[in-house]
Amino acid sequence: MDLRKKPFYLTETENRWVEKTLEGMSLKEKVGQLFCVMGGGFSPEELDRLVTEYCIGGILFRPAPAAEILAAYKRLDALARIPLLKAANLEEGGCGAFAEGTLYGWPMTAAAADDIKYARELAEVCANEGRSVGINWSFSPVTDINYNFQNPITHIRSFGSDPDKVLEYSLEYIRTLQSAGIAACAKHFPGDGVDFRDHHLHPTCNSLTASEWCETFGRNYQAMIDNGLLSIMVGHITQPAVQMEQNPQLDIEDCLPASLSQELLTGVLRGWFGFNGLITSDATIMRGFNMAMARSKAIPAAIAAGCDMLVFNVDFYEDYAYMLAGVESGELGMERLNEAVTRVLALKAVVQRQTALTVRDPANAGKSRACVERAITLVKDRQQVFPLTPEKYPLVTLVTHGDDKTGEGESLTSLMEQQLRSGGFQVQRFEKDVTPPAKTCGLSPSHLIIHLANYGAISNNTANRLYWVQRGAQDAPRFVNEETEIFISFAYPYHLQDVPRVKTYINCYTCSRAAIETVTDKMMGRGTFTGKSPVDAFCGLPDTRI
Fold this sequence. Notes:
- 36% of the residues lie in helices and 13% in strands.
- It has helices at residues 12-23, 27-33, 44-52, 66-79, 107-113, 116-132, 163-179, 210-226, 240-246, 262-272, 287-290, 295-305, 316-329, 334-351, 364-375, 412-422, 513-523, and strands at residues 35-38, 58-60, 85-88, 137-138, 183-189, 204-205, 231-234, 237-238, 278-283, 309-311, 377-381, 395-402, 426-429, 447-454, 484-489, 504-507.
């Protein structure tokens, strides 16, 4: 491989550093470079040992106070003979790297704002705040195409269901992030969002035909590669049509998840697409990886198939031993091992060009508010309720579904109540143990019920459906013809499948203080709804439009 070409474009000095570093490494050090560990699973003393004795390639800390992240990286950097890849999931803002980071907005927020500048701003915030704590590698953007509204894990993490828009926004994010010195890692090849299941729980399937895949996911990955994408994260997702086209001897049961598939990694990414960047697995703690084959075989098999690095471990020491045993048995050849380590080192050479920490920009919060304000989408309003006034609706009842916490850790319900009270409304909260009315003759359209739903993109969830209280589904919209009901989703954009007869429905895409304050202002007439839905919020169901 020529590291002086796309996507690394190493200088002669950088290329010599990679070659000399590889030559000077022992087998055990090379094996260590294949692993990116979860830092929070180890004590500081143990992490020091992983860096010095095992020569791990990378580390990711879940968001913690910035001072803690900085201190940990400073200590580890001083110990590391070979620079570390320092990773984070910078999907929605700096909050993906550290606790105080800005929640700019999930990618679908930028897409709903319907201006490419918001994809650029999202990446700028991620880069500025990520680099302020030393991050040099981001497991983002999510480039999945959200075809299936029942998928529980993609939705607001994606730029939507239009392949063209997903590509346009992904390219802008990648260009911006990498220009700022952080390597982007597009995910989840060969593409999530087709299946309605979560590959955290078992292998899932991108079931498009080979031609459909090539025209959508395949086209997008090729374009990202052509435009200099440095790394790709492969999911525990099969693509049987493409795999069997690559290898006609395969049957459906022989199709491994992409993280273990020679056909998809070496055949498609390296062969068809000519990708010379780094390929990493998605987290190997996920059941989609572990159900494919025995872990002792899967660890070396993933590298042999074409991965250059593995993310996270069930038990690091076991996985390290499995990898070493795979090399010693010949399951993982030395040529493939050296190739993988070379790409890991090449990525490190690229991100070492900018090592100085940035200063967090105080304007990031304002950028976030502007994006959220533009993105909020009035999906459905068949009762023309806006603007809301205390004269029309003297009593408002708030009904909360899902998580009551915003992305900043505040109470969704309390913030909404505060906003409404400041507008002159009387507000009460729904109490699930109150007996529902036995009669409807006393109900009035002047009673306003606002439903607040917060079902985020959480892994290990089988569905993001609304589940009502057992006693008569008291918290579900009911008397929509006698009272006035508004349903606001602060995350999952497809709740109309479960509340199809609600007459007014709003998508906010990100549960934040900015979203709560802004949507309340809009409902009270202090602003207009400008968001453009990046997906079919009606879920293809005719009754959701009634």
